[in-house]
Design brief:
This protein is an alpha/beta fold and 520 residues long. It folds into 3 domains: 160 residues, Rossmann fold (3-Layer(aba) Sandwich), CATH 3.40.50.2300; 124 residues, GAF domain (Beta-Lactamase, 2-Layer Sandwich), CATH 3.30.450; 184 residues, Hypothetical protein af1432 (Orthogonal Bundle), CATH 1.10.3210.10. 49% of the residues lie in helices and 11% in strands. The chain has 17 helices and 11 strands. The chain has a 6-stranded mixed sheet with strand order 2-3-1-4-5-6, sandwiched between helices. Strands 8-7-11-10-9 form a 5-stranded antiparallel sheet, sandwiched between helices. α10 packs antiparallel against α11. It is elongated. GO terms for molecular function: phosphoric diester hydrolase activity.
Length: 520
């Protein structure tokens, strides 16, 4: 110990705040000094110290290099009591820029202590180094150490609150971007649980549910993770304990947030009253900043729910319009089954889902493709409205001229849909449907019409529709024939693989049939 160290802790009463009744997370303070006695005395006089209900915990380093390693491994250190003279006369001073620049740690408060102020003049050190206080050991009594520590911890608290607030807002912006790109309720709900957990830096352990009235049995889980994984679609009471179910329903009924000691339940308000509740198992109470961040994100999520509802309503309106348009084509074929286009759309979508699991098609069959083919496939035969009734209603085989008129429906339907699609920017179900309308009568071997396209030159959507259309047509009655038995229709599809149909699409089709119990 140097001569100056004799004055480090002069006898002076220290009025430390009383220790909290419950043990709270301590403030971490790093003592960096090459004299073990300094470490011991600091711990002794500060053992009852607390700030904002939190005690202090001391870490020790006996050289600058050791201190640097501790700081690398524990970025939560709030304050450093740093000696100047250790392994070299300026080891402490040289450590300061390494903390600030090399580690990028601007939050930790650094109090420089020296027993030899002449070696490091206060004015030069304060202006030349990014430290927060400078104390000669001759003046640093126990009382002044307590005062300096309170000031440093208060400053650290404010800085970290600002940093957390900034990081939280950045996370909210990122979460909003992620959430607002989703267009299905289930994926949106999954994202809500995930992004709330990320913003609050909590384990992904929670659920989101919507009310079906106020009875417990009517509350339904939209998404769950952690202990609630796999609970989507189930009643709330089926997967949660009664206390949690009651708490969630209370939030939905009273339309307010509920912050508990080990979980938080957030009320997600929507404009038309279709409220939801998100529960996260935090394992601890949220602090004030975390609550504010949660409520900011909840407001964003609520807007997302409203947008999702509007998007869903718009999709339903589009689907109704498509069905009406498709009905015009079915009007030309009164015994085509009535709901032919709906059956076709379902089968086409199922085949596309199976193809999505094929590595050769996974990149092509994305979410947008699935949305577009579901709608666009219903318009594949819209060009039939321009085919004369004498052709569509004919009971026997078509002659050459009649066949030519029939084949015009592909280009005519594509022209109708392309004209309409130009009113909408980008890819849409009308332009997608136009490609299907033009090419659904092409054949894998190139012998189809109108262009004689072959193989993968035929759009994938049209290749899928070709298989689904033939199967549905065969298995439903027409005015000139009875419905073909399913087994016979399946044999026709199988025999057409590689000639009329894409073999990969046929394989996916048979997997769908197997799932429906049509194939063993």
């Amino acid at each position: 110990m140097t001569a100056g160290d004799d004055f480090l802790f002069q006898d002076e009463p220290v009025e430390a705040p009383p220790a909290p009744a419950a043990v709270a997370k301590p403030w971490l303070i790093l003592i960096v000094d090459d004299d073990p006695e300094v470490h011991a005395m600091t711990r002794l006089v500060m053992k009852k110290f607390a700030y904002n209900g939190r005690p202090v915990q001391f870490l020790s380093a006996y050289s600058a290099e050791e201190a640097l390693q501790i700081l690398r491994n524990d970025p939560g250190i709030a304050m450093i009591l740093l000696d100047v003279v250790m392994e070299t006369d300026d080891a402490g001073l040289r450590l300061v820029p390494r903390i600030r620049e090399e580690l990028g740690n601007d939050a930790v408060r650094i109090i420089l202590r020296t027993g030899q102020p002449g070696q490091a003049p206060e004015d030069a050190v304060i202006h030349g180094y990014d430290i927060n206080d400078y104390k000669a050991k001759t003046e640093l009594t126990a009382q002044k150490l307590g005062t300096a520590t309170v000031a440093a911890l208060r400053s650290y608290e404010h800085i970290t609150a600002l940093q957390r607030s900034r990081q939280g807002m950045e996370r909210i912006i990122g979460a909003s971007t992620q959430i607002f790109t989703l267009r299905t309720v289930d994926r949106f709900a999954e994202a809500v649980v995930r992004e709330l957990s990320r913003v609050l830096d909590l384990p992904e352990d929670g659920l989101i549910c919507v009310p079906r009235g106020l009875a417990k049995s009517d509350a339904q889980i939209l998404a769950g993770s952690g202990r609630h994984a796999g609970s989507a679609g189930m009643p709330l009471v089926a997967t949660t304990d009664p206390e949690l179910a009651d708490a969630v329903l209370t939030v939905l009924r009273e339309r307010r947030h509920d912050y508990g000691d080990d979980r938080v339940i957030l009320w997600l308000r929507t404009a038309d009253g279709r409220d939801a509740a998100a529960c996260l198992h935090s394992g601890r109470p949220l602090d004030e900043l975390e609550r504010r961040l949660a409520e900011v994100l909840v407001a964003k999520i609520s807007v997302g729910f409203d947008n999702l509802h509007l998007y869903d309503q718009l999709k339903k309106a589009h689907k109704a319009t498509v069905i009406a348009l498709a009905g015009l084509a079915e009007y030309k074929d009164p015994d085509g089954g009535g709901d032919h286009v709906l059956r076709l759309s379902r089968l086409v979508t199922e085949i596309a889902f199976i193809l999505r699991t094929d590595p050769d098609y996974a990149a092509q069959v994305d979410d947008e493709f699935l949305d577009l083919i579901t709608m666009g496939s219903m318009l594949y035969d819209i060009g039939m409205v321009g085919v004369p009734d004498r052709v569509t209603m004919k009971q026997g085989a078509l002659d050459g001229d009649e066949r030519a008129l029939m084949q015009q429906h592909c280009e005519r339907g594509a022209a109708i849909l392309e004209k309409a699609s130009r009113m909408v920017e980008g890819s849409n179900y009308l332009s997608f449907g136009a490609a299907i309308a033009r090419t659904h009568q092409e054949r894998w071997d190139g012998t189809g019409y109108p262009k004689g396209l072959a193989g993968t030159d035929i759009p994938l959507a049209a290749r899928i529709v070709a298989v689904a259309d033939v199967f549905d047509a065969l298995t439903h009655r027409r005015s000139w024939r009875d419905a073909v038995p399913v087994a016979e229709a399946l044999k026709t599809i199988e025999q057409g693989a590689g000639s009329q149909f894409d073999p990969a699409v046929v394989r996916a089709f048979f997997r769908v049939m197997q799932g429906r119990g049509r194939v063993r």
